Amino acid sequence: MRIVSLLPSATEIISALGAHQGKHHELVGISHSCDYPPEICELDVLTSTRVPVHESQLVIDQFVRQELAAGRGLYALDIDLLEKLRADVIVTQTLCDVCAVSSGDVYQAVSALPGDCNLVELAPSCLEDVYNDIIRVGDAVQSGTAARYLVMQLRGRAEAVARQQILQGERVLFLEWLDPPFSGGHWIPDLIELLGGNSCLVESGQRSGTLSWQAICDSDPDIIVVGCCGYSLEESEAALQLLSRHEAWLSLRAVRENRVIVGDGNAHFSRAGPRLIDGLELLAAKLLPASSKLTGA
């Protein structure tokens, strides 16, 4: 079985299942954003991006809004290479045209391919959907047993964090972009709930969306987590420095009281795969000192 993954979370799921290492299962193609685990980085790359990823967050946001409003896609798919790879299974997404190649482009490409190909589309809205998608991908690549075992492990780890109840209902604002500010939606509120907190300005299953600084100030969260979409920890920290003189940001109680946590959005929060639970555990470890301050312990 030859497998193509057109989004990083699917690549990480396939790799976690070992479905790319068997004699009869081979991951043969990935997207330009796929970078984990490191051993997959030598595979054929089927997509490219027009997004100016090395520009400022404001420039990136303006470019994305402009191109989507004009009906222009942000990504290109190498159809000739896709046909050459002769995939039996292609995993793609229908959740967000900003995050990966659009489902319409993939549909068009697959319809022109010779032979049969199983197209698996992922569109998780919450953590439970992520678990279900792991099983769906596992079944599609004939690794259903491994997928169910992986989900059982992930649930166990998440429940272990939940039992600690590190937070006691504190209000947590997760920012997945800073200029302009975006809420961390979808599965992020579920992670906050597992920590014992309450998500500010967005509920489980809701899409991430632009926030006004007024709304952020009015919510006055107890804790702020910054994990910029597609950014490493270092990149998120650098982006956060741009707010060092931002009046609204500096007025927030969480900022004044040093209750801002920065995480690796690219690795642990943006991708709907197994490493979300790594992110949950890392947040738990970072929040323990904050929890002690909040409770006066």
TrEMBL record:
Listed Pfam families: Peripla_BP_2 (PF01497)
Residue stretches making up the Fe/B12 periplasmic-binding domain: 2-291
Top-level taxon of the source organism: Bacteria
Matches recorded under Gene3D superfamilies: Nitrogenase molybdenum iron protein domain
UniProt-listed InterPro entries: ABC_transptr_periplasmic_BD, Vitamin_B12-ABC_binding
Alphabetized PANTHER family for the sequence: VITAMIN B12-BINDING PROTEIN (PTHR42860:SF1)
Protein name per Swiss-Prot or TrEMBL: Fe/B12 periplasmic-binding domain-containing protein
